[in-house]
Design goal:
Helix content of chain B: 10-25%
Largest sheet of chain B: 10 strands, mixed
Number of strands of chain B: 19
Strand content of chain A: 25-35%
Strand order of the largest sheet of chain A: 6-7-8-3-9-10
Radius of gyration of chain B: 21 Å
Shape of chain B: globular
Number of domains of chain B: 1
Structural class of chain A: alpha/beta
Shape of chain A: globular
Strand order of the largest sheet of chain B: 1-2-5-7-9-11-13-15-17-19
Radius of gyration of chain A: 18 Å
Order of helices and strands of chain B: HHHHEEHEHHHEEEEEEEEEEEEEEEEHHH
Number of strands of chain A: 10
Oligomer: heterodimer
Structural class of chain B: alpha/beta
Distance between the termini of chain A: 35 Å
Largest sheet of chain A: 6 strands, mixed
Helix content of chain A: 25-40%
Largest interface: A-B, 30 and 24 residues
Distance between the termini of chain B: 49 Å
């Protein structure tokens, strides 16, 4: 479903991704693990289409279509969802207004009818209940005054409502206590299906205790250095990333 | 006109002098004469007048259009409110409509009140104010609405004073709201979509009695690029009174919003907030003077200005704490959002404190749309223009959180949405 070929990405004058190649099949949960500075977040932003992440070479194919020419909102409508490591607070923008705008924009882009309010409300209530997102959180401006855990639940809620083809979780475990980690992971696990894939980006093995990956890829210095099954994550937990840090052993 | 001004007498000065000659005996002759004298000392303000340093009214009004006498003002009970519609000149309400006013409210025309020399109206109509344009308004006022609300009356239904659009003419309205002690009311002040060449000088005066509570919303629709409008609010608050005043300005030509508030009695509270949306070559100036003259007063000012295109926004806010106004609590905030590289904002908050034991502060910021927030919204599938619109609405919306009436708040939201829709269309 996702095929990344020989991807080079520059941020400013720095080359961060240096010929990254990766394939993720439909139904697969792929973990991307790597040390700080490996380019993990750059990979997620490059797939989502963030300005300033300049692709100088290579391609990113979603279901065979190169998405690199698309704007971020067009990629979202094609089914790409990025759960942010640090979700932003947006004062003055009501959470419900935002959720409805996002869902309906994607529906319009796909030629579907917009959701009517009662249907929309029901979907939000159902999904929020499962993820422990309170009514109070839904009433506040987006992410404003939320704890780290609440922000990640809100990301999981958005992912559930937008039902993407490819979910990218960028360091979702950072800033989460065990309870929040469990709730968010259950949310992700509930979305696993045969025609949806996940890219789970993490520094630590801990998240993978809750979201069991099918494949594990070790990323360092802007490339995938090694790929394997779930046991690779355990090995990394044991040995750390020193094997992948070139000359300067950590 | 006296000598100092005659040295640079312009066509506009000549027209204004002619208008004064026609109106000088048109009721409240003393008041008009004093006001004309105050105005003619310097004439129309230019940037050399400190309080007008960002808005050159003299240059914008090289040519003053004569008012066009015509009738057509009326009072109606509309939807959820009592609406008083003013055309440029005379306000002549139908007796049956006037009778429809809720108990405790008396509506009359300023012209009638002046003709009858109503002492209460004359005493309250022109609170001290050294602004030349307010003085000009007093000298040349044609007509306006007078709403008297009986002490203790609680009026649920908003009273709207609606100034109908003008075209190729000047207009000088002055309206007065006398809110008796302990009374409560909501006043809506609206200015219709301006036609070509409108020149408006409008004043609204609030006299808020002790312990009374007034909610006020001003809503100025956009006007044509050649319109010039000065819309002034003059208010005095008695002891323990409260005023919550909001204004929405949607650009169009030159608009100056002026607020002169004097907190006279002890322990009163005034909240002023506003959102201004500007595009094209709009120029809008919001200038406030809040004067704490008694102990224990509280004032809050929260303004948002959104500037697109080549437009210019101005915020000048001055909080003055007079000697003896101990325990004054004041906080003023002005935030501007620039949407284009050629947009300009001038932000000038000021404090003048002559009393001890006072807590006053102010803050002013000017920024652009945050690219992190835009990317977040776009990554959820929201197209860029819609993402910008959400952020702009959110920014403006922060200012009207203080509007208590939900229907009015919705009306303001729709005003912002309409402005944004136009902006999107023109992209």
């Amino acid at each position: 479903m996702l095929q990344i070929n020989n991807l080079y990405v520059r941020v400013g004058t720095r080359e961060i991704l240096k010929g990254l190649t990766l394939a993720v099949k439909a139904g697969e949960v792929a973990a991307i693990m790597g040390p700080n500075g490996a380019g993990k977040s750059t990979l997620s932003y490059a797939i989502a289409g963030r300005e300033g992440y300049e692709v100088t070479q290579g391609e990113v194919l979603l279901d065979g279509e190169n998405i690199l020419g698309l704007e971020p909102h067009e990629r979202a409508a094609k089914g790409i969802f990025l759960a942010f490591q640090y979700p932003v607070e947006i004062p003055g923008v009501a959470t419900m207004t935002f959720l409805k705008a996002a869902m309906n924009a994607q529906r319009r882009a796909r030629g579907e009818d917009e959701l009517q309010t009662p249907d929309f409300m029901k979907r939000v209530r159902d999904a929020a209940g499962k993820l422990g997102v309170s009514q109070d959180m839904l009433r506040r401006p987006l992410n404003c005054g939320f704890s780290g855990g609440e922000k990640k639940r809100m990301e999981a809620l958005q992912m559930a409502l937008l039902a993407p083809r490819l979910g990218i979780l960028d360091e979702t475990d950072s800033g989460l206590d065990i309870d929040a980690l469990r709730v968010v992971s259950e949310g992700v696990n509930a979305l696993r299906s045969k025609d949806r894939a996940f890219l789970v980006i993490t520094h630590y093995q801990r998240l993978l205790d809750y979201i069991k990956p099918d494949t594990v890829h070790v990323m360092a210095d802007g490339r995938i250095m090694r790929s394997g099954g779930p046991q690779l994550a355990l090995e990394l937990e044991e040995r750390g990333y020193r094997d992948y840090l070139g000359g300067e052993a950590a | 006109m006296i000598d100092a001004a005659s040295r640079h007498r312009s066509a506009a000065d000549a027209t204004l002098a002619d208008l004064f000659a026609q109106r000088r005996s048109d009721g409240a002759a003393d008041l008009r004469a004093r006001a004309w004298e105050a105005f003619s000392r310097e004439g129309l303000p230019n940037r050399r007048v400190e309080s007008w340093r960002y808005t050159d009214l003299r240059a914008a009004l090289l040519d003053v259009k004569p008012p066009r006498p015509r009738g057509g003002s009326y009072v109606e009970l509309a939807d959820d409110r009592l609406r008083i519609a003013l055309t440029a000149s005379e306000f002549a309400a139908h007796p049956a409509a006037l009778a429809a006013a809720p108990d405790g409210v008396t509506i009359s025309s300023l012209r009638e009140e002046l003709a009858m020399r109503n002492p209460r109206v004359l005493a309250a109509l022109a609170p001290a104010c050294d602004d030349p344009v307010v003085a000009l308004n007093a000298a040349l006022m044609q007509d306006g609405a007078v709403a008297q609300i009986a002490p203790g009356a609680k009026i649920d239904r908003p009273i709207e004073i609606c100034v109908l659009p003008l075209s190729e003419e000047s207009s000088f309205t002055r309206s007065l709201v006398l809110l008796g002690a302990g009374a409560q009311a909501t006043i809506v002040e609206s200015y219709g979509v301006g036609a070509l060449g409108a020149q408006g000088n409008h004043a609204l005066v609030f006299d808020i009695g002790a312990g009374a509570k007034l909610d006020h919303v001003m809503n100025a629709a956009s006007a044509s690029a050649d319109s010039v409008r000065v819309i002034s609010l003059l208010t005095t608050l008695g002891a323990g009174a409260s005023l919550n005043s909001f204004c929405l300005i949607r650009g169009g030509g030159l608009l100056r919003r002026q607020i002169f508030a004097r907190l006279e009695g002890e322990g009163n509270e005034a909240v002023f907030s506003g959102a201004t949306l500007l595009r094209g070559d709009d120029h809008a100036d919001t200038s406030l003077t809040i004067e704490h003259a008694a102990p224990g007063g509280k004032s809050r000012e929260r303004f948002r200005t959104i500037v697109d295109g080549r437009a210019t926004g101005v915020f000048q806010g001055k909080v003055v704490v007079r000697p003896g106004a101990r325990k004054t609590d004041g906080a003023m905030q002005s935030k501007a959002l620039l949407l284009s590289p050629s947009a300009t904002m001038n932000n000038k908050p000021e404090l003048e404190i002559y009393a001890d034991d006072v807590a006053c502060g102010h803050g002013a910021t000017t920024g652009r749309l945050d690219s992190d927030l835009l990317f977040y919204l776009e990554s959820r599938g929201i197209p860029p223009m819609e993402a910008e619109a959400l952020l702009i609405e959110g920014f403006a919306g922060e200012a009207f959180e203080s509007v208590a009436d939900e229907a009015l708040r919705d009306e303001l939201s729709r005003g912002v949405s309409a402005w944004l829709a136009l902006r999107t269309l023109e992209r």
